[in-house]
Amino acid sequence: MVAVAALMVAVAWGADLLVKMTIRRLPLSGEGTAFSLVRQCRAPLLAASASALTLAVEPSVGLTSAARGGVHHLLVLTTIASGAWLAGRLAALVVEAGLRVTVRRRDPVRARRARTQAGLLRRICQAAIALVALGAMLMTYPEVRALGTSLLASAGLAGVVAGVAAQSTLANLLAGLQLTYGDMAQIGDVVVVAGEWGTVEEITLTYVVIATWDQRRIVMPVSYFTSRPFENWSRRDPGITGTALLHLDHSAPVEELRDEFEKFLAGHKLWDGRGKAFQVVDTTPTTIVVRALMTARDGGEAFELRCQVRERMIAYLREYHPRALPRIPIGRAPGGAGSADVPRAPEQRTEPDDTPPGPRRRRRGGADSSG
């Protein structure tokens, strides 16, 4: 056993020396180069090479027959595990290298899509490698091989049981692929899910993490996004249109307010210049509804710009046109002539307390005018 351990140390030392010599001969041009690949794969490469070479020379080491079987089995397990470790690291580095090439094109939408797809592809590759390695390690035990043979003999029943058990997992996996490669949502997208506004922070094989504006994290299953509607504010372009509603008196000077609104937007850094409008979109018996429309580069800037437009227009109205702000007429409440809580307007003529003042006044006015 000591001889095997000494052999593994010697092989690891030799492999490490070989890796160091290779690194010295490669151009040191930073991340994404062959130097970076060798450096990040150094530990799994040493483990895999040491275990594989030790396994190869193990028969020539003088071991007793009782110890040989256990040592050989341990070396096989170590070789499989270290080989899976190295394969997973290589897969991650290949995906990362492809991501760097895509991000260099400086297209933010394409970069977000590439980051999301690369992250999901890396997880799928690593999960597949780990599953294959685990199966290979289990198959080194005779009992597990016998169990596998019996399962193959009853493949119909086993397939039904496995299908039912893995239905939810497979559904989430397929939903994750559809979500990512169907370009429905990417990392960094601004979304509204279940009434919550937030940013997609992470997409895994089974769940999606949404970071809300108040620093909460909402974790939702991937299948939610493929089975229910949700809003994506930045799927193709992060630019968005924001609106601010103002309720004003009918006497409000709309043209003057429109000029002030456009003047305020022209000098504002959050307005991207794509669009603007100041329109009366509705009326009520006591007010008009004015909509101020403006565009911004993303949802966060649009929200901030809407708030500042409201503040500016209200301040302008309060300073120059205070009577244009909405007013609530105060009069006698129906059936409440003696109420001390409701101020009453000056009365022109008296009416019975049990008669609604509006319709009765119109009828009397009509009678008076006709007389």
How would you characterize this protein structure?
- This protein has 371 residues and is an alpha+beta fold.
- The chain folds into three domains: 152 residues, no CATH class; 80 residues, SH3 type barrels (Roll), CATH 2.30.30; 85 residues, Alpha-Beta Plaits (2-Layer Sandwich).
- The chain has twelve helices and eight strands.
- The strands form two sheets. A five-stranded antiparallel β-sheet has the order 4-3-2-1-5.
- Strand 3 and strand 4 form a beta hairpin.
- Helix 3 packs antiparallel against helix 4 and helix 4 runs antiparallel to helix 5.
- The longest helix has 39 residues.
- It is elongated and about 105 Å long.
- It starts with a helix and ends with a helix.
- The C terminus is likely disordered.
Could you outline the blueprint of secondary structure elements for this entry?
Blueprint: H1 2-25, H2 34-40, H3 42-57, H4 65-103, H5 108-138, H6 142-153, H7 155-165, H8 167-181, E1 190-193, E2 196-203, E3 207-212, E4 217-221, H9 222-227, E5 231-232, E6 240-248, H10 254-266, E7 271-283, E8 288-296, H11 299-320, H12 357-370
Antiparallel strand pairs: 1-2, 1-5, 2-3, 3-4, 6-8, 7-8
Helix pairs in contact: 1-3, 3-4, 4-5, 5-8, 10-11
Strand segment count: 8
Based on secondary structure, the structural category is alpha+beta
Q: How do the SSEs run, as a string of H and E?
A: HHHHHHHHEEEEHEEHEEHH
Strand order of the largest sheet: 4-3-2-1-5
Largest sheet: 5 strands, antiparallel
- From the alpha carbons, calculate the radius of gyration and give it in angstroms: 37 Å
Helical run tally: 12
Percent in helix: 55-70%
Low-confidence parts: 28-34, 338-371
Mean pLDDT: 75
> How many discrete domains?
3
* Outline type: elongated
What gap, in angstroms, lies between the N and C termini?
A: 124 Å
β-strand percent reads 15-25%
InterPro entries: LSM_dom_sf, MscS_beta-dom_sf, MscS_channel_2nd
GO biological process, one term: transmembrane transport
Organism: Kitasatospora kifunensis (Streptomyces kifunensis)
Region (Disordered): 327-371
